[in-house]
TrEMBL record:
<protein>
    <recommendedName>
        <fullName>isochorismate synthase</fullName>
        <ecNumber>5.4.4.2</ecNumber>
    </recommendedName>
</protein>
<dbReference type="InterPro" id="IPR004561">
    <property type="entry name" value="IsoChor_synthase"/>
</dbReference>
<dbReference type="GO" id="GO:0009697">
    <property type="term" value="P:salicylic acid biosynthetic process"/>
</dbReference>
<dbReference type="GO" id="GO:0008909">
    <property type="term" value="F:isochorismate synthase activity"/>
</dbReference>
<dbReference type="InterPro" id="IPR015890">
    <property type="entry name" value="Chorismate_C"/>
</dbReference>
<feature type="domain" description="Chorismate-utilising enzyme C-terminal">
    <location>
        <begin position="192"/>
        <end position="447"/>
    </location>
</feature>
<dbReference type="InterPro" id="IPR005801">
    <property type="entry name" value="ADC_synthase"/>
</dbReference>
<dbReference type="Pfam" id="PF00425">
    <property type="entry name" value="Chorismate_bind"/>
</dbReference>
<keyword id="KW-0413">Isomerase</keyword>
<comment type="similarity">
    <text>Belongs to the isochorismate synthase family.</text>
</comment>
Amino acid sequence: MSTLTSAPAERLPHPLVVRTVALDLAGAPSSDATDGTLPEADPTDLLDLLPAPGAETADGAAPLAWVRRGDGLVGWGEVLRFEVGGPGRFADAERAWHELLAHAVVRDEVQVPGTGPVAFGSFAFDERSAAGGVVVVPRVVVGRRGGRAWLTTMTVGAALGPVPDLDELAGVRVPPASPGAVTYTDGAVTADGWRDVVAAGIAAVRDGEVDKVVLARDVEARTEHPLDARWALQRLAHGYPSCWTFSVDGMLGATPELLVRSEKGLVTSRVLAGTIRRTGDDAADLARAAILAHSSKDLEEHEYAVRSVAHALEPFCSSTNVPDVPFVLHLPNVLHLASDVTGVLGGEAHAHPSSLALAAALHPTAAVCGTPTQAAATLIRRIEGMDRARYAGPVGWFGADGDGEWGIALRSAQTSPDDPHRVRLFAGCGIVAASDPAAELAESEAKLVPMRTAISSD
């Protein structure tokens, strides 16, 4: 069942009016390089545009962001939001989006992915979670891709307005304030208790209940001063430029895992499974990368994850490409086994599904749930001891044509709409028969580092 916090699209007094214009964004990569390459943009250029909490231009809504290596989208304000829940949350969200677009007035002067009507979304991991899902239609979107930048405004009106002005829409730019000192307490399960949870997961694997299960834990943080999401987002974008820095409805993070990108019939999914902590010493980390690449335990975990993604994409694709062996993805805090699965959508016999429909078909992957999926999900509900809410659920954006990008909400945290000092951090680990509870706890601590660093004041 879906609920709308604003009037349903068909009851709006006027249609959605969308205007996209080219933008000369300071700091955008130049296309004038003599060697034909584009210098990498500062990943925080787009994030710098986000208004401060409480600013009139923000409409009281949380900032919206999907940024990687300087490209991506940021948005603010809120024209409309669709709140959904239950097993039909993805289909309900897409239906509401299409209903809104049916009578939209659109003028797109740029015509690249991410221009025209755009909505951001975040969905719960478990269909039974009260967190449900949300699709937010922002009032303002600024995007950048390959040296081109643009500005999109979305309003409800009878006709197109004047050419939008970024300075006016962004308002006075106020730098984010430090959250001050941060204190941490146990989440739903203590650290010692989580070792017991992992032990129960290992026992279930050895008993043949599942081949693999992914177990997560949360940690509660309290900041001295109200957390400005922009503070965390800028630190994440600087520290993890190869990840997708995101923010939707208070769910924010920097995910290394792309659930699905759909663009003009081509589909990509980046699968991560198998992790080892970095030491900070380059030579030692190269040796650890070699260990990870040959670890039977991690390769087994990775194979389950890749297989689940390829199997989920197969009905929608005329062809797929699955790498024979993974590569090692180097992040500042950990090393991951990674594989990029690609495909070509459909052909004449298949209608092209939207990126959100593909995300729904892929979710939950073995990388965040386990194998077999349903058995792992049942086990998670029985032993994990917490509601993941939107952690490990799809997060991202899509446009009017259905194309878009959806990540898995990992390396993430949920801010509280009721208490700006409260932040809930998450981390999870893949459990197989060879797992060790103490080692998995240490891995979860390593995966908490990005968000701990993002909300720290030093």
